[in-house]
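dude i think i finally got it to work??
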Amino acid sequence: MATAKSNPLSYLRDQLAELDAKGLHFRLRVLEGAQESVARFDGKEVINLSSNNYLGLTTHKALRRAAIEAIRTHGVGAGAVRTIAGTMDLHMALEAQIAKFKGTEACVVFQSGFTANAGTVAAILGKDDLILSDELNHASIIDGCRLSRATIKVFKHRDVTDCERLCKETENWPGHKLLITDGVFSMDGDIAPLAELCTLAEKYNCIMMVDDAHSSGVLGRNGRGTVDHLGCHGRVHIQVGTLSKAIGAMGGYVCGSRDLIDFLYRRARPFLYSTGHPPSVVATCQAAFTLLDSPDGEKLIKKLWANTKLFQRRLKKLGFSIGATETPITPIHVGEAAKAFEFSRRLYDAGVYIPAVGFPTVPEGKARLRAMVSAAHRRADLERASAIIAEVGRTLGIV
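look at this
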């Protein structure tokens, strides 16, 4: 038996100790019960401002019914990867439904939003190609870019002028070129200048790709995302979305031309080597998109935005810095990581759960709490949460 002294992973304990010494102690909070606006974590009931459950669909009765019925008719699992025996009629129906919703020819569903981004970029590009990427793009985009082995050039965040500078420098690039951005940036809540980037992609012959994870179900007509919100239909070649946030379930998807989707069926490694979604998850997503594309879905989105405006107005009035957010993502800027994590711990003790975010998720010196508003929050929840945030923030000298 190996001793502690000979353990080749012992260095990890030292690195964990260093993180703890910096005040960055972390442990998983355990949710007991459903993901709701007021929920029980680690035995304590708190106002939940930590979830991506934008529309409250994780507990919606229509989605519950759909999941139960799919288990009754199709069982609990797909039983194989999609390319062998794991593609069910439910999978094909969901992909057709999403493609219609997003206004594209076709769609493929992945096991997560992360694998949708990483798998797509790595599949369509190679070592002779070029990627132009926003500096604050999601980690899944960054990993996909690296896996592709393409040359990567990063432009300043939301800076169209800097992006065009790179486009001009690489105008005669011999390989394929991809211009890629988040639609909504997950840590700051700001929206990409998508129309302007599409213009650059058209001018310099780039493939245009957008990750709409945080805008699907939030922006655009009935939650169709930034492409719809900014009037860019027909100008974006690849649209990525998630089934894990506003949709309330699990997974990711890619929408685009029929050729793109057929190619990803054959070459996207996460799709090729992962078992298909369970029937209950697929049916849940179908029910969610049906709901979104209805008056009830529109009402939920309006409630989400009413709650967002109320909460963000309160925080600004109290003196907190929430940056340039344009969406329900509400960063509460702190700066020092140790103080941000202490702020989060004290809020939890006082009955509000908002996790802290520090390096490497955000740059050093830009630590924050990231509050996520949902349609399910009651006005009273948000008012009480604001009061608690203000009280704890004052004790720590944040405001």
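The chain has a mean pLDDT of 95.
im so relieved honestly
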